[in-house]
Amino acid sequence: MNMTKIGMAGYSVSAYLRRVFLVLALTGVCTSAFAVPAELMDQDGKKGGLQDFSGKPVIVFVTSLTEMAELGKWEEAIRPKFSNINTIDIGDVNTSSKFILNELNKELKKHVPSGVRIYVDTQNIWAKEYSLDLFSPCVLIFNADHKMVAKFTGNPKGDVLEEVVAAAAKYFPLKAAPAK
Q1: DSSP secondary structure letter of residue 71
Q2: Would you say 73 and 87 are in contact if contact means Cβ atoms under 8 Å apart?
Q3: Using the 8-state DSSP alphabet, how is residue 156 labeled?
Q4: Closest CA to 60 of 157, 13, 2, 127
Q5: Distances from the Cα of 51 to the Cαs of 36, 89, 119, 147, 151, in angstroms?
Q6: β strands within the chain, DSSP E
Q7: What are the Cα distances from residue 116, in Å, to 78, 104, 113, 124, 137?
């Protein structure tokens, strides 16, 4: 075999390997770039997420920084309707600034009741993964396998609240109605 053929064969193998690595890299980027993170950090620097409720259904409330007060309103509207419920509150804050995050965490610690954890998504991963419009609060219901089974957008009142309660009732026991 002459040197030209060896060079061409080496080039072909090299080009093939570059294409394979490119495909693998892009596949990795595409599957991981928008994968919901296993864990997010809350205002106290503690990690948590869906994995905290392994084998259990979960309601996830996601909203933007400007709508964070709505997280509490959703919790207040939903909790009394169910005897037992698993929830996660996520504030979507698109920043990598440590200063902004530190200030946000200070404000959350001041205004959020003790024991309530608000996880901060600094990369909009939840919004991207589930195509969320964060101009209003979003409610995601996950079954025990953590597959999203319902998605709602809006404030906790009227039809939206009724629809969320009806969807969640498939996975969580409702409180018994008071005797008349």
Answers
A1: H
A2: no
A3: S
A4: 127
A5: 11, 14, 13, 12, 19
A6: 40-42, 47-48, 58-64, 87-92, 118-121, 138-142, 148-153
A7: 15, 15, 6, 21, 18
d(CA 94, CA 101): 10
- Tell me how far apart the terminal alpha carbons of the chain are, to the nearest angstrom: 95
Token reading at 158: 């009227």
E strand or H helix that includes residue 25: helix 3-33
Residues 6+ apart with CB under 8 A from 18: none
- H or E segment to which residue 6 belongs: helix 3-33
d(CA 151, CA 59): 10
pLDDT digits (tens, 9 = 90+) for 1-46: 444 444 444 444 444 434 434 443 333 333 334 456 678 988 888 9
Whether 61 and 137 have beta carbons less than 8 Å apart is answered as: yes
Please, is 35 exposed, middle or buried when counting C-beta atoms within 10 Å of its C-beta (0-12, 13-18, 19+)? exposed
Q: Which two tokens stand for residue 148?
A: 């999203």
Q: Taking 90 as the threshold, does the pLDDT of residue 65 lie above it? A: no
Q: Answer whether 23's CB lies under 8 Å from 29's CB.
A: no
